[in-house]
Specification:
By secondary structure, the protein is an alpha/beta fold. The protein is built from nine helices and five strands.
């Protein structure tokens, strides 16, 4: 069983993915963390995430363990991840890593921005998670603040808007909802309600 979960930043897709992975006892791959790891590797090498060649080199030699580094969760790395993700060669380098994970015996859950459309177009279940921009901005601002990163709500909102535009407008594998993906709008939906809605759909499909 493969479950694909897509959506923009701070929509709730990561939390949903973790809760479903725990419930169904499936391995989980946060594919966004791979791109964050590439951005971190580029910066550690003294280059800029906007440097396409540096991003390509980092992706082709990436140590997947870097995705677990706490530093990848910073706002700076998040912005960098969106930049390296727009490079076709970076996406190509990480494509097989993601598809190999999806072939895990027994199934897997992957969350990202192009799982249902590109990585696993034949996934058994697909969800597209979204929320109103102001709600997403407040969620990300709260997350960053609780992590000790000082920033303003307006700055976070601007960064998310910039990232949305870049993710949706890139040439290869843009952020988008697969035609057969179930839409989960979490603007006024608690995470518990979102998880319950997804579980109902999955359980009916498995029956």
């Amino acid at each position: 069983m493969i479950i694909a979960i897509d959506g923009p930043a701070a929509s709730g897709k990561g939390t949903l993915a973790r809760r479903l992975a725990a419930h169904y006892r499936l391995p989980l791959l946060d594919t966004g963390a791979l791109y964050r790891a590439v951005a971190l590797a580029v910066i550690e090498a003294g280059a800029s995430p906007s440097d396409a060649q540096a991003a390509i080199r980092a992706a082709r030699t990436l140590d997947p363990a870097l995705a677990d580094d706490p530093r990848v969760r910073s706002a700076e790395i998040g912005q960098g991840a969106s930049k390296v993700a727009a490079v076709p060669e970076v996406r190509a380098a990480l494509l097989e890593v993601q598809r190999r994970f999806a072939r895990t015996p027994g199934g897997a859950i992957l969350d990202g921005r192009d799982i249902g459309t590109v990585i696993c177009p034949d996934a058994d279940f697909k969800f597209f998670v979204t929320a109103a921009p102001h709600v997403r901005a407040r969620r990300r601002w709260k997350e960053l603040s609780e992590g000790g990163q000082v920033t303003s709500l307006d700055e976070v909102a601007a960064q998310l808007a910039e990232r949305d535009a870049r993710d949706s407008g890139r040439r290869d594998a843009p952020l988008g909802r697969a035609e057969d993906a179930v839409l989960l709008d979490t603007t006024d939906l608690s995470i518990d309600a979102a998880v319950e809605a997804a579980r109902r759909i999955i359980d009916v499909g498995l029956a």
